[in-house]
Design brief:
The protein is built from six helices and 15 strands. By secondary structure, it is of the alpha+beta class. Strands 5, 6, 7, 8, 11, 12, 13, 14 and 15 form a nine-stranded mixed β-sheet that branches. Strand 13 and strand 14 form a beta hairpin. Helix 1 crosses helix 2. The chain starts with 6 loop residues before the first helix and ends in a 6-residue tail after the last helix.
Length: 236
């Protein structure tokens, strides 16, 4: 399978034109690859001489982004001075690849890893309002309605007040949605209303869902996935 990006995507990524306008340039015969006139559907990568109207186009190594179903027992860092396993051991090695945000060592679920710094900023900056959804299994079990209401109204933690966007019942616990990600926040919020979190799985970030991946499995995100990931969560 040819993993090189299509020519219009390369042109768009370089900031020369939108993909639609890049297609017009290609159809007009104004783009060449290694001296031959390019056609719609052609692909190109590093090392190939791509030109528009005779001017060279800088062809960069494309960014790569993975969705990982993080298992418990892995730390969300590039390396660990204590020798603990890290999430980087679960995905292919790529220069510049890094986890976006964090999941605690004993937490599981959706984790994005990318080489794209702009995407990292989009997902971590508060102004983009990305929701994060967590499936929580608790002791002593099903979370009572009045405690769910308390989570939505807001509770006071040692580092300040915190409120869930939504909190609803689920078998054996609850589903909690946040727009922030303080350290062990979901666990601390549940503890404040009298519940111990036995298991915590992040199932969604923004519009991107974990899906059927088994713990430890990953997949490379396609353009459609990345478009969903960059879409801010709707304000409620």
């Amino acid at each position: 399978m040819d993993e090189r990006p299509r020519l219009q995507k390369l042109i768009s990524r370089a900031g020369i034109a939108s993909r639609r306008k890049a297609e017009v340039l290609i159809a007009a015969g104004r783009v060449t690859i290694d001296g031959r006139v390019a056609r719609l559907g052609d692909r190109a990568g590093p090392g190939e001489d791509v030109r528009i109207d005779g001017r060279p186009l800088a062809v960069r190594e494309p960014h790569v982004t993975y969705l990982l179903n993080k298992p418990a027992g892995y730390v969300t860092t590039a390396s660990d001075e204590r020798g603990r396993p890290t999430v980087m051991q679960l995905v292919p090695a790529r220069p510049g690849l890094h986890p976006v945000g964090r999941l605690d060592m004993d937490s599981e679920g959706l984790l994005v890893l990318t080489t794209d710094g702009d995407l990292t900023l989009t997902l971590t900056h508060p102004r983009f309002e990305h929701e994060k959804e967590y499936r929580v299994h608790t002791l002593p079990g099903l979370v009572a309605d009045h405690d769910l209401a308390s989570l939505e109204r807001g509770v006071v933690l040692e580092d300040g007040p915190a409120a869930a966007v939504s909190a609803r019942r689920a078998p054996g616990g609850a589903v909690v949605v946040l727009r922030e990600g303080r350290k062990r926040q979901v666990r601390r919020m549940l503890a404040s209303v009298g519940y111990e979190v036995e298991r915590l799985v992040r199932t969604r970030v923004g519009a991107l869902e974990l899906g059927p991946l088994a713990p430890g499995e990953f997949r490379r995100l396609e353009d459609e996935d990345l478009d969903r990931l960059r879409t801010p969560s709707p304000l409620v």
